[in-house]
Fold this protein.
Amino acid sequence: MNFFKRLANLFSGQSAGPSTRHLTVYVLSRRCNEPIAGQIDLLNELSQPDEGDAAYYALKVFRTSGQKRCFDQVEVELWFNNNKQITEHQVQGGRWLEPEEYEQALARFNAPPEENDKMIGGQDDKMKG
């Protein structure tokens, strides 16, 4: 019966476990100070590591949006156990963020420039002229 249920889900476009297929990763670009959320497909993007005790390995490069005319990429290396849970991570060009940190960084990144910054720029222009 379970086989037929999975077969029916396959043809209807439903998946058995949508939350277990993708792992969301949050990083912050050091150069652009832009938070990035990306996904790793746990069924297709994992490989077996050449060395070490990890069961799986993934290397992923995330790119900034260029929204503030800054373009950068952040490289993330992940090592997983047999249950596909992260045991170790390394980030080049940025830093690892927890989901709460990502939300705060995203709000800060999307916030309009402060009024004080505009005032200082305006005063400098008046002094020069």
Q: What stands out?
A: The mean pLDDT is 84. Residues 49 and 57 are 5 Å apart (CA to CA). Helices lie at 2-12, 18-21, 99-110, 115-128. The radius of gyration is 21 Å.
